[in-house]
Batch of 2 targets.
Target 1
Amino acid sequence: MSFDYDLFVIGGGSGGVRAARVAAGENGAKVALAEEDRYGGTCVIRGCVPKKLMVFASEFSGMVGDAQAFGWDIQRGAFDWSTFHGKLVAELDRLEGIYRNILKNNGVESFDQRARVVDPHTVELADGARKTAKHILVATGGRPVVPEFSGSELAITSNEVFHLEKLPESMLIVGGGYIACEFAGIMNGLGVKTTQFYRGAQILRGFDDEARGLISEEMCQNGIDLHLGTNVLEMKQQGDKIWVKATNGSERLFDVVMYATGRAPNADDLGLEALGVARGRKGEIIVDEYSQTGVPSIYAIGDVTDRVNLTPVAIREGMAFVETVFKGNPTPVDHELIPTAIFTQPEMGTVGLSEEEAAAQEPIEVYATSFKPMQKSFAGGTQRVLMKLIVSQASRKVLGCHIVAPGAGEMIQLAGIAVKMGATKEDFDRTVAVHPVMAEELVTMRQPVRTA
Ligand SMILES: Cc1cc2nc3c(=O)[nH]c(=O)nc-3n(C[C@H](O)[C@H](O)[C@H](O)COP(=O)(O)OP(=O)(O)OC[C@H]3O[C@@H](n4cnc5c(N)ncnc54)[C@H](O)[C@@H]3O)c2cc1C
C-alpha cells in the first residue's frame, strides 16, 4: 500500500517538531506536519521561554538593593512593560521563525492548519484536504482550563498573561502549582501588588515538604500576599476592576485575575474515539512505553499523553518514537529520575524522591542544611537557601536531591547526572567541594539531620 507520507505529525510544538525533524533529516523519511497556531508550541510561544524571560525581567528589582549594599550608587527606577513586551514579542517571532526553518531545512512539508485523524492512515486538514501516511504522530500538547463558576470568564490564564496591554497594579493568581507560583514571583518582582489563593494547605503539592515550606515562606517575605486554604467563590466586573469574593469571606478588587489551576490534554475533536484510541481520566491519549496507541499506526507523545509534562520529556519521547519506528530499534522512554527546575523566587531544583515519598518506600537518612547565602547575607538580606539529600539506608544511594536557592535549576542539572548514575552518599562525600559556592554543602553534610 502506498501513502503520501511515511509520517504525518499533528502539532508543531516541542515533541512534534523534534520527531518530524529527526525522522526526515536523519532518517530520510517523507514527513508532513500540521500546526494550527504558532510553530514552537507551548514551550516557545506561551510557556518555558517567555516565562523565563519574564523571570529574568522580574529579578532585577531585587538586585538593586543588593547592589546598593555592595556599594553601588544605583537607584531603582520604573519598569516599562511596553519596552519589555515589544522585545518579548520580537524574540518569540524570531524563535518561531527558527522552528519553521528547522522543518523546511529538513524537508518536512508543513501545513498551517488544524488536522484530525479520519482513519488509521489518513489525516484531514481544516481545508478538507486528506493526506495519507504510514504512521501518524499526535503531538497536540495541552491547554489551561479554568473551572466554571460565576464570573469565571473574567479570568485570564497563562496563555494571555504574556500579552497584557499594560502591567496591572494589582493581580490575583489562583493556584498552587508551579505555573501559579512562578507567575506570583514574576508579577511581584515587576512591582505588581500580587495576591495568590491556593485551596490546599501548602503550595507545590508533590514536591518535598521542607522545600515547599521554604519557598512559601520566602514568597511571603518577598511581598506576595499568599492565602492558603482559600479559593474564589464568585467574580464580577466592577468598572475596570474585578470584584472577587473568596471562601475566607474576603471581598476584594483586582485589576487582573489569572487562573493556573490545571491543564487538559488537547485530545478532543481529533477523531480518535471513532478509531478506538483509548483516552484516560483527564482525556489524555493512552499509549504504551513506546508511545504507541491501541491503533498500531498511531502514536502520541508529549503533554497530550499526560505522562511527565515537560519540554525535554516531550523531546525525548519524540526521539524515542523515531528510534523505534524509523530505526527499527524499539526504545522505551525512561521517565525515572527526571531533574526539573521551578522558577519561583527562590528557585527550586529537584530530582528523585521527596523525603515523604522515600520514607514511605524504605528506611532513609535525611541530610539537609538551610543557611543565608554569602551574597544575600553580606547585603543584609534574610533569604535562606536549602540543600537536601535523601539517602537510602540500605543501598546508600541518593534517592532525592532538593535545592532551593538562586541558580538551583542550573545546579540540579549536574546533580541530576550523579543521582541518575546511582551515586551513593559516599560518592557525593568523595567529591571535593567547590569553594565558596552554595552547592558545596551538597558534598560536605556529614551527619543526617534525621532518619525515617
Ligand atoms: C506557563 C508554562 C510554563 C512552562 N514552563 C516549563 C519549563 O520551565 N520547563 C519545561 O520543561 N516545561 C515547561 N512547560 C511545559 C512545556 O511547555 C510542555 O511540556 C511542552 O511544550 C509540551 O510539548 P508538546 O510537544 O507535547 O506540546 P506543545 O508544545 O503544547 O505543542 C502542541 C502544538 O500542537 C498544536 N495543535 C494542537 N491541536 C492541533 C491540531 N488538531 N492540529 C494542528 N495543530 C494542533 C498546538 O497549537 C501546539 O502548537 C511550561 C508550560 C506552561 C504552560
Target 2
Amino acid sequence: MADCSLLTRELLAQLVGFDTTSRNSNLDLVAFIEDYLGRHGIASTRVDHEAGRKTNLVATIGPDIAGGTVLSGHTDVVPVDGQDWASEPFMLDERDGRLYGRGSADMKGFIAVVLAMVPRFVAAGLKRPIHLAFSCDEEVGCLGVRPLIAHMVKSLPRPAAVIIGEPTSMQVVNAHKAVHTYETEVTGLEAHSSNTHHGVNAVMVAGDLLAEINRLAAEMRRRGDATGRFDPPFTSVHVGTIEGGTAKNIVPRRCVFAWEARFIPGADTDEVPARLEQKAAALEAAMRAVSPDTGIATRRTVEVPGLRPVEGSEAETLALTLARSNDTGAVSYGTEGGLFQQAGYPTVVCGPGSIDQAHKPDEYVEASQLAACEAFMERLARASCATV
Ligand SMILES: [Zn+2]
C-alpha cells in the first residue's frame, strides 16, 4: 500500500493539534493555514462567520480566471466528550498505518493533503486556478460555509468544479441526502400529580408526538428509495434528545425534543413536518380545553440541502478522471455540497478516509488513503496545467 508524504503527516499532526470542536474558535487554526499559504506566496482572504471567533478562508493558486477547481473542507470537528479514546484525541498518533486523532478522517486529513500539495500547485504553472475554501461550523449545520459561498459567488470568476473532501474513501460521490433538523417544544400546565385532570402533561403529550414520528419514520421506510443508491434506502426520521419534567409528583409543564429527517434528494421535505403539525393541532385542541396557555411549537433549526446527482457534470467528469474511476456513489450524510450546488457550482464529494470512522472515539485515517488523495491532487495539478 502506498504511503503518504512526511509533509502531509506533519501538517495533519499540526491541524489535529488545534482543538477546533465546533463550540470553540477556529482562529488559531486559520492563522496557521494563512501563515503556511503566505510562506508559499499565496494570499488568502478571511470571510467571517462570527467576527472575532469563527472565520472561513479562501485562497486562489494560479490565474484569476473562470474554469478553476474549488477544494472545499471544514475546519471544525465534533466533540470528544464522553468518548473513550486509546490515545490523546488532539495529538496525532500513528499505529499500524493508521493516523489516529479527532478530525483525522473528518476532515483534516483532506486539508493536510491539500496544504501539502500547495508547493506543487504553485510550481506547476497552472493554466486554470485551484481555489481553497476552508470553512467553519460545518458540524453544526453547514453554517460557516454560507457566507463563504456568498463571498465566492460575488468575487471569484466562476469555477468549473467543486470537490468537497468529506471522507468517501476517495470514491466520487455525486448525491447525498438533505438534512433538516427540528426542535419541538410542548408547553403544558403544571399541577400536583394527584390532580392530573387539572394539568396538561407536557411529557405525555410529547409521547403522543413521538408515536406519530415513529409512524412517519416507518412509513418513509416502507416508501423506500426509488434510486436504489442510498444506505439506508429510505428517508430516515430520528429523535436525538428529549428533556422534560421536574419531579415525579409534578405534572410537567415543559418537554422539548430535537429530531431530524434525512431526505432522499427530490423527496418532499415539507411532508414529514406538515404531518407532525397536523397531529400537533389535534393534540393542542385537547390541551387548550384545559388551559389556553398550552401549546406545541416546532421550529426548524438547521436545513442542509441535498446534493442532486447531475450525471456528466464538469465536477463529476473531472473527479472521476482524477480518481481513475467510472462509478459514482451516494451517501446519507450531509455536506456543504448541496449549498455549492444551489449557488450554481457543479459539485461532487471525494475525500480520504471512511465516514465509518468519523465522529467516533479512535477516529483514524489510513496513511494509504492520504496517499491516494495525494495522487488525486497530483493529477489535478497536471489537469489544471493542460490547455483546453
Ligand atoms: Zn465532515
